[in-house]
Amino acid sequence: NAGVTQTPKFQVLKTGQSMTLQCAQDMNHNSMYWYRQDPGMGLRLIYYSASEGTTDKGEVPNGYNVSRLNKREFSLRLESAAPSQTSVYFCASRDRAIYNEQFFGPGTRLTVL
Amino acid sequence: AQKITQTQPGMFVQEKEAVTLDCTYDTSDPSYGLFWYKQPSSGEMIFLIYQGSYDQQNATEGRYSLNFQKARKSANLVISASQLGDSAMYFCAMRGSGYSSASKIIFGSGTRLSIRP
Known about the structure:
The complex is a heterodimer. Chain A is mainly beta.
């Protein structure tokens, strides 16, 4: 089992460019998440998907869009990148039971110049 | 709305001492759950312990225990007999209730714990 995989691992963009961060999990989990972590800070929830076919805004959704492509895959899109979106982006997945923990991917380090 | 607060940005503790990391929360959900995660300098997120709001006993997992005080809305992590490998960032997180809210998990700002030899 690969767990949660994210691509790419690193990315540098110029202001105004767009890109999509990919996330996939092979644990048959229902819920998936996107977080951002700024240096020395906690994780802030961007969007989450409670189950296939649903997505909901988190704490900081502005400037991002998501797609739950199928049960395995959850992508995050930056339509017009801004320097304020420089961060490490973590994808996570979780099974349905309320006590279950999240499993995290290794993160994508994004720099917007 | 849910909110998680960790008021200790950093802590230094002598090896083998016990340490308590503070976490307070606010929610209007009737039931909820609290998680603690560890993030070493390598960056991965490691799940430590979970406490449900209706659990009768405080959660324990090896050297980790959760001091859950529902009336005070606090869920502090206690690490007994600290080790050098415990040096890391520690995050408190919370989920709500309801079909969608039970999946929504937010994190606190974290506490950086440093263990002195």
